[in-house]
Design brief:
disordered C terminus, Cytochrome p450
């Protein structure tokens, strides 16, 4: 994660304006490809990011229009493009699965783990279709949500220089210019507080659905078994009963002990209960490491008079590109135009 963030920073030039939302999408996509499939993808599978982004964009577009959603079967240009992208993804994933099944040694990536997973009772292993479905879900959800969360984090830091200053102080004190590692995370509590508060204000998954397995009464309403219940973390996170001044960006809400002060199911950026997001720990580690890696060397400033609004699609995305000016922090240890990880593994 750190090496990929450093490689991204190698492309930064002092004073340039970049679309940070696009940068975060490319960065987290490279990381999830590495973790799911390992570094050495077959040549035929190296363009896996293209069709995946096409599928996600189509899903976002469909969700944003009731009419288009109901006509998804029509042979329109967008629908045909989505079908082609899904077919490309299927072919790539099936190729990866066949290639790995033929290998005797585990590569240590998630695909290798899934291939060797067996049912505790029957000993049965996953079929190719099950593997394909798991990989498609993990791949799609494993980068989009974290990219959106990081984009909102940079946006909030740009709007609140006093928070960025406090973050800089923590990073300078703990890291002293060196790259962060996992063992540093417990020493960076304010970094975590910023990420959690950004997730409160702009939860990447603004709503999700649950189905009761038996009849239940909720707040006086009879909800029959099999009903569709929509839960909105966005609404919960902005409820003044649980968060004072809920529209205010205040990382101090998540100072140590926050999980005792905030009701258990009032804060749900990853859902809750037995179906809590399986990537919870991965996403929090990734967001903190990327934030620490970049923020200690750069200040990202939103373009003047730029208005950024959230739009609810599959995720809670900014309504358009988030263009920010890249400025080197005074005293940064980065060499001009190149990072100290210039020889880090290529994210591609």
């Amino acid at each position: 994660m750190v090496a990929h963030a450093q490689s991204m920073m190698d492309s930064y030039r002092e004073g340039e304006v970049r679309d940070i939302s696009a940068d975060m999408a490319v960065l987290t996509l490279g990381i999830v490809v590495k973790c799911l499939f390992g570094a050495d993808l077959p040549r035929e599978a190296r363009d896996i990011s293209g069709p995946m982004l096409a599928v996600l964009d189509a899903a976002n577009e469909r969700l944003n229009s009731v009419v288009r959603a109901s006509l998804s079967w029509l042979p329109t240009t967008r629908n045909l493009r989505e079908k082609r992208a899904i077919a490309e993804l299927d072919a790539i994933l099936q190729l990866l699965i066949r290639t790995r099944r033929a290998e005797k040694e585990s590569r240590g990536d998630l695909l290798s783990v899934l291939l060797r997973a067996a049912d505790e009772e029957s000993g049965a292993r996953m079929s190719d279709q099950q593997l394909r479905d798991e990989l498609m879900t993990l791949f799609g959800a494993g980068h989009e949500t974290t990219a959106v969360a990081l984009t909102w984090t940079w946006y909030l830091l740009s709007r609140h220089p006093e928070v960025k200053a406090k973050l800089d102080e923590e990073l300078d004190r703990v890291l002293a210019g060196r790259p962060p590692c996992v063992s540093d995370l417990p020493k960076l509590p304010y970094t975590e507080m910023i990420v959690r508060e950004a997730l409160r204000l702009y939860p990447p998954a603004p709503s999700f659905a649950r189905e009761p397995v038996e009849d239940v009464t909720i707040a006086g309403y009879e909800v029959p078994r099999g009903s569709l219940i929509v839960i909105s973390p966005y609404v919960l996170h902005h409820d003044p009963r649980f968060f004072s001044h809920p529209e205010r960006f205040d990382p101090e809400r998540f100072a140590p002990g926050w999980d005792e002060r905030i009701p258990r199911y009032a804060y749900l950026p990853f859902g809750g209960g037995p179906r809590v997001c399986i990537g919870n720990g991965f996403a929090m580690m990734e967001a903190r490491l990327i934030l620490a890696t970049v923020a200690q060397h750069y200040k990202l400033s939103l373009e003047p008079d730029k208005v950024v609004r959230p739009i609810r699609l599959v995720t809670l995305r900014p309504s358009g590109p988030v263009r920010m000016k890249v400025e080197r922090r005074e005293g940064s240890s980065l060499a001009d135009g190149r990072s100290q990880f210039a020889n880090a593994p290529n994210p591609s």
